[in-house]
Amino acid sequence: MTEYEKFKKLLEYFMAHLEFCVTDQKVGDGYDRYIKVIKNFNRSGQGHKGQNIQNQIKEWESYTNGDICININPTVYKGRGCYLNWEETSINVNALWNNDSIVGLKIVKDSYPISNAKDVVSYSVQDLGLLDNNPPNENLKSFFDRFDEIIIQWNKEQESKQEMKQIQPYIDLLKSSKNIILTGAPGTGKTFLAKQIAKQMIGVKTDDELEESGQFNFVQFHPSYDYTDFVEGLRPTPPDENGIIGFEIKDGIFKSFCQKASEAKFSEIVDNFDLAWENLLTAIRNSIAQGTLTTIGSWDYGLSSKDSLKYSSLNTPSQYNFTITKKNVYDAYQGKQSRPSGAFQKDMEDVVNYLKANFDLVEFTNNQESTNNGIKNYVFVIDEINRGEISKIFGELFFSIDPSYRGKKGAVKTQYSNLHSDEKEVFYVPENVYIIGSMNDIDRSVESFDFAMRRRFTWIEITAVQSADNMNLPQNTKERMLKLNEQISNTDGLNPSYHIGAAYFLDSNGNARQDIDNIWSLRIEPLLKEYLRGMPDSFEKIELLKNAFTV
């Protein structure tokens, strides 16, 4: 059965169910086809809560992008409390009635609370071809495709929110400490994570946008990398007319990057939300002092004890009340869902519009999240930071990269300052430059990492388990990886620094691979043999590791 065919039957059942509950008449094609055959018919229930009514549509509930639930409120069968919805969402299908007959169906999104509901599209029963005994027609396919498009977009938004939630702690640490190092076992996605953090810091979404932003640079250290590559040094010039090659002083990649960051202009729009919010609170306090409330959207607001907007109807039978916090409104200002349930989203957006109309709140842009006091953020990633000779590469910048000495107060003269046209010229690392380093725990050079540099970075370990979550590894693959890593920890001569990260299970597009035998023989086994080279009983240890991975 195709998804169109399943969806058609689901709509036909939904229509038959509601019409039977309204009329109690055991007649009609819909009743004969769908209701009559059910032995223990449940008139009402909440399918999204797993109640028995969901069993009545079990055959047609599952689709590529999610499951659909049936929800029937027994108090008003003709009301908006009776609907089909994508599971865990407020994306619904509602019935359109004419007396006791359903004449059409419509798609509604953002339907919780109901005051937020937005109609998307509607079709008549006739146009959808329901109960016509024919295959799904083009209208029904279009209806399903629109319903499907909304859940696809919703899924993407949830994935984005989940990703943001996972990396937010790293972003907070980077903002506070300026310099972080991501460390962990091989394949734990440290470089990938560094770029994800950079995207959020800069305010872009794709790798291409990151590269084109002008606010990002990436370098990989190695044993021959030095100060002249990183800060500045002498470089040969092209031969002159006599064939003589000279030398001139050239800025290194990091110095050029810092100079660009120091010249960064303020964002075109700076977030003035705090000021607008305080002005709103002042206006509401003044109104309260005069014995009146402030009308915003559909409600009259006062203030709670914690300076949140408060609506209360204690003088009415319902005694209905709610509060809206500053954070709720700020999330709505950024275009985010303010509460997980989506409750009162429209009312929060009304407050945002009120702030714009009355207190000059500027339009929000993504760049506002990616600024340092209004100045654009610049992110410099150093991959394999421990493979270079740190003292030789950074030189006097040990002082300047310290979070306490960012900006002009940390200015230093470089090693080649005597060759500058102005010998008083100094170099500093701007406040809006953030450094992310990455390194593998098992590299032999880790032990030699300069202690003066160690204390200038915040160190964050990325475990194999975290990497599985960060890279959305399927559960069965994750369990296989965990069993292998448990055996690695139990193997003499190895420890958690030798764990296998999630990247070993992904293809070049970042998707999970299913060819387990090839993953073992081509990716994991050669690495483990290298770890165990020269150790006693290495063959037996490999077999134990293989058994843990393949069982």
From TrEMBL:
One of its GO terms (molecular function) is ATP hydrolysis activity. InterPro entries: ATPase_dyneun-rel_AAA (IPR011704), Methyl-DNA_Rec/Restrict_Enz (IPR052934), P-loop_NTPase (IPR027417). Transmembrane segments: none annotated. This is AAA family ATPase. Pfam families: AAA_5. It comes from Flavobacterium franklandianum. Residues 365-457 form the ATPase dynein-related AAA domain. It comes from the Bacteria.
